Amino acid sequence: MALKNWSSELIDADDLSSAMDIFWEKGWTDGLPVVPPTEERVADFLDYVGMEPDEVVCRIADRNRVITAEKVAINAVMAGCLPEYFPVVVTAVEAMCAPEFNLHAITASTMGAAVLTVVSGPIAKELEINSGVGVFGPGHRANSTIGRAIRLIIINATGSASGEIDKATLGHPGKFSWCMAEADEVSPWPPMHVDRGFDAGDSTVSIFAGLSGTQVANHHAQAPEEILVSFRDAMFAVGPTQKELIAVLCPEHIGNIRAAGWSKSQVQQFLFETSQRSDADWRAAGEVVPASPDGSSRMVPVASEPDNVTILVAGGAAGAFSSIIPLWGGGAGSQSVTKRIQ
Question: How far apart are CA 109 and CA 96, in angstroms?
């Protein structure tokens, strides 16, 4: 295999321990050990997708940054990815550089958002991307390394190192790695990428500027209305007039909703109608909600429209635990992006 013409700095290290020290000292890691990105390993990744090192994947105009295939491959190797994962990583980087995602803002903000990567379609099963038990946790190579590759690219290729450009007050664990698939075999509805206009046979990557999720537990209810009303308080914590937020429904909850024959749009409509409170109550909770011109009270929803609630089905078969995930800027300052994997 012929080696490439690289633009990146070449480093000689005596051993693995020395390499780790160099990478740490240069600020090239997330604080954890990395796989040394040797020329051979990086070339393997580029060859897998037929890209040259200097091929431009995307540009970040706000920072005058150009992210090349070489930079993406280096960080994917460092994260521990396999070459088979590289098409997902490349597509995710293309998506997060879309202007509507507003990568510069979300990776510099004190709000502390992380890039949530959702893989849909056949490739999710081919790569064994977890959608089941512990979907947001450790133990699955594809989830862990794809999500970590995105974080390392944000650190090294966009310059958003913690404490430098990244000024997150708290952050959250998703800033290490946050990647999942949808549990299509459990869901009674079409997957998200089909809702967004792609064919069922397409493989896609969707990215969201996700804040820390809130767990929603309801172990007793069986009727959809009784299950979904449990989401109300978690949604109230998100704030009013959201342009997008995510509801992750676990298999136990979705089983009862499926048995009742509810559609995805019915779930969205119920969550929209249930999570409303008066403008006065929102203001009392510290939210900025303008009063009505005539001074009368009005009800203000969490989600501006029913379909602003993005529904994902995921999680282990046991346990009635779902989740609400708010998005940076209420889904208006940063819009989610879905792209087809080539």
Answer: 16
